[in-house]
């Protein structure tokens, strides 16, 4: 068992627990829970930042287009965006499919949760600023353009399930060597590894804090692998990240009503 922070659904604050990421077991205040029987809230309290084009395969997919307008060249610094609070959701909670959209893109990402104020940190010291890790589904409406903020495609209510917990950093041996898998309705649809990151976790933290401060409770997503699966209403998504946890969510019609705002 490993120490973690967890937020039970509709409970206002996170609490400490012990978890078994591979078996989906939670022990909190002496009570044992099975993850597959729970809905949970998003266990982060700060701002959630996404990172574009940080997997080698994703950058390779752009091909020669990365050297043409409007890009001109591969990015020299991290390309960031924000998943605002209305997007936040938790394990087991539904992801809404908007009425005018036929499918959504699954964005499996490792979330790095900040433990103390980080400004201009050195790469060698960067992991000392990490409180723990979590699983994130950076949901988006499929779109092609990367040179402008995709607010309409990425910032819808419920478009950022996070969880099921934040596992303490000591439980993860090497954040740059974690298997990432996406299952849709029990079928393996995507498999990758953080070994394929362009910027390692420490390098990404160093590069980001070179120009902005990350505060305790903030979460920095390391990026989404290429070949993100597409899903529709009634599909069930399961994202697994080795040593970190399992995040599951169903897709429902937006008309059914889905709470946003960090449930």
TrEMBL record:
Keywords of the record: Metal-binding
Pfam families in the cross-refs: FAA_hydrolase (PF01557)
Keyword Disulfide bond annotated: no
SUPFAM superfamilies registered for this protein in UniProt: FAH
Highest taxon listed in the record's lineage: Bacteria
GO molecular function per UniProt: 5-carboxymethyl-2-hydroxymuconate delta-isomerase activity; 5-oxopent-3-ene-1,2,5-tricarboxylate decarboxylase activity; metal ion binding
Entry keyword annotation includes Metal-binding: yes
Segments forming domain Fumarylacetoacetase-like C-terminal: 47-252
InterPro entries documented for this protein: Fumarylacetoacetase-like_C, Fumarylacetoacetase_C_sf, HPA_isomer/decarb_N
Gene3D superfamilies: Fumarylacetoacetase-like, C-terminal domain
Protein name (Swiss-Prot/TrEMBL): 5-carboxy-2-oxohept-3-enedioate decarboxylase HpaG1 subunit
Organism the protein comes from: Melghirimyces thermohalophilus
